[in-house]
Amino acid sequence: MDFNNLISGLDRHTLDGITRGSIYALVALGYTMVYGVMKLINFAHSEVFMVGTWAVLGTYTVIGATAGDGLGMVIAATVLALLAAMLASAGTALAVERIAYRPLRKKGAPPLIFLITGIGCSMVLVEIFGQVLRVFFGRPFGRVTVNIPSVLETKTVFTIPGIDLAVSNTRILIIVGAIVMMLALDAFVNKSRLGRGVRAVAQDPDTASLMGVNQERVIMLVFVLGGAMAGVAALLYTVQYDITKFDIGFIIGLKAFTAAVLGGIGNLRGALVGGLFLGLVEVYASAVWDSSWTNVYAFVVLVVVLMFRPTGLLGESLGKARA
Amino acid sequence: MIRSTKTWQAVAFTAVAGLALSACGTTDTGGGSSSADDGDCNFKIAAMGALSGANASIVIPSVDGAQLALDQWDGGDCTVSLERFDTEGDPAKATPVATQIAGDESFIGVIGGAFSGETRATKTIYQDGGIPMVSQSATATDLTQDEPVEVFHRLVPYDDYQGVAIAKYLTDEAGASKVFVIDNAEAYGEPLADRVAETLGDKMVQRDKTEVGQTDFAPTISKIESAKPDAIMYGGYIAEAAPLLKQIRDAGIEAPFIGGDGLYGADFGNAVGAAGEGAVVMCPCAPIEDDSTFADDFEEEFGGKPGAYAAEGYDAMTVFLKGLEDGARNRADMLEFVNSYTGEGLSKDIAFDENGDVPADQVSYWAYKNEGGTLTPEVEVKPGS
């Protein structure tokens, strides 16, 4: 146990934890929105994120962006990759909804069936990237870790005076990017007309229908929004870690789902709080002990929090968030 | 609605009946072909390992090497085929494969298991079947040092030596005196890192553990930053080594990075990209000269340079083929032959001690440097001397 390491490097660990947590939080939004509206855990959401990371790699490959490009190219490549990832992830989420959930909903299937088709979709997507695409296109597809060129190279932008903490461009992008997307989504759901529809369906689907809210369109909307957020997370993730892999969504998805539950599933701000909290806990605990127990720390904290607050830290549903 | 249910019942019944019939058929042919003891020389040799999955690039070249040895062999009256069994390196998937191989008398030898975990899970199955194994790449110490089985042999030295070789490279070749040792907290990486740490003694500055599947190594990076090591050792596999090394270099840490043979393979360079330039991988696999006959033949047959353990795979097959030439016609004779085998191989002079290991004076490692995505042999390290 090395509490000295935690205290002496507290600033650094906090920055690391917020970076990690920001990505959890963005992915957690997809779980929480779908849950808020449909009372359904979309287990295919981890693969929605995975598809986004591949879209980033695809964009870089198509426009030929590599490490060491000029500033113009870096900005263009990053923006295009962001759009491509959002589009790919939102498209995947929508496809999952259309293929795995809508037909069942039309037939009034019991809730458990949706979980199974979600897991099935998740496996299909993993195998598409792990096996199927490799057969047609060869590398880089397959069950291997794939390098993504670090188009946006990590550089220290400034050092926080006093505590002498170096902050790099990638971290700024991740933290600011995540928070901006969160605020935008929160404002959208709480202020816009479509957002009002989302909240209405979350509160009471039947009454919302009677009031003229098109429930199917709201469901499509939450899948697209959740998917787009996973796409943003995918870009930020690849900027920080420069890799992807066919099963990369699994652990991120598990942690993001944990973050969503921790913050109060169905609650947008809960996803943010849960994500950041989980990231910080993991990094702090890893600093005191080591990283081989990361999942234990995360789930012990989850259990303890749920014992005292069974509905999560913020504990409200999407509908009640600000009705 | 009722009518369609009946249709489905009919379809289902037909399907079940068909399956049952085809199952009978399979049993018949199976019964016909499993006659190995009738004096003629028709045998199969099994190769068991991760032929797909994240670590396949460490295994496939060795099986190709074995295939090459078989293709180049003039068998006389013997007809021998190599059958590949994919386990993805997973002990749970290897167990049924081993049961199948051990139960089919037409298999006279096993090349593998390629990884230690699957070998640990299956060696008693092969022992019960009495079928000799020659592994090209399973290096866990306990496979031969704790509870050895008679059928298991390997062409590579075990991990205790590798830890010593890595430590020796770090102190003698890299001139390191403050080494940061990291492992992946699983069966391969942890004991390897333990051994390195033990050999380094006070030349190790700090130790950290990570886990399989991890991609964010920030807590480890901050520990490295404050320890200021002059070299970093990682015990683990490619999937985690690539993001770890990228984050080390992103943080501006330039200390040399060295890993064990878990990083050996073309996928390491692909996964780590530019950040992996100059990283060192220690491997008991002998380098193959680019212009050797073996390299030429291999390239001609498989369209690429011989990769990880290709020479060891070739040697493993050669041992079995020599056994057939010597007149071994059943598993017991073959096992006896392999136990006492000595001969010159591509990778080293081959012999097995009483545990099935490479004799201590033959143990040798090579440090490979990652240059532009290719692992280039740098220096030979003899841990025994």
Short précis:
The complex is a heterodimer of chains A (323) and B (385). With 323 residues, chain A is mainly alpha-helical.
Structure characterization notes:
The complex is a heterodimer of chains A (323) and B (385). Chain A is mainly alpha-helical. Chain A has a domain at 26-249. Chain A has helices spanning 3-8, 10-38, 45-63, 71-106, 111-137, 169-191, 193-203, 205-210, 215-241, 249-263, 268-288, 294-308; strands at 146-147, 156-160, 165-168, 243-244. A two-stranded antiparallel ribbon of chain A has the order 1-4. In chain A, strand 2 and strand 3 (165-168) form a beta hairpin. In chain A, helix 2 packs parallel to helix 6 (169-191), helix 4 runs antiparallel to helix 9 (215-241) and helix 10 packs parallel to helix 12. By secondary structure, chain B is α/β, with parallel strands linked by helices. Chain B folds into two domains: 42-157 and 288-352, Rossmann fold, CATH 3.40.50; 160-283 and 366-381, Response regulator (Rossmann fold, 3-Layer(aba) Sandwich), CATH 3.40.50.2300. In chain B, the strands form three sheets. Chain B has a seven-stranded mixed sheet, with helices on both faces. Chain B has a five-stranded parallel sheet with strand order 2-1-3-4-5, with helices on both faces. A two-stranded antiparallel ribbon of chain B has the order 11-12. In chain B, strand 9 (257-259), helix 10 (266-272) and strand 10 (280-283) form a beta-alpha-beta unit. The model of chain B is unreliable at 1-5 and 18-38 (pLDDT under 50). At the A-B interface, helix 2, strand 1 and helix 11 of A face helix 8, helix 9 and helix 10 of B.
Radius of gyration of chain A: 20 Å
Shape of chain B: elongated
Q: Unreliable stretches of chain A, pLDDT < 50, 5 or more residues?
A: none
User: Major sheet of chain B: order of its strands?
Assistant: 7-6-8-9-10-13-14
Average pLDDT value of chain A?
90
Mean pLDDT of chain B: 86
The shape of chain A is globular
> What's the CATH first level of the largest domain in chain B?
Alpha Beta
Oligomer: heterodimer
Structural class of chain A: mainly alpha
Percent helix range of chain A: over 70%
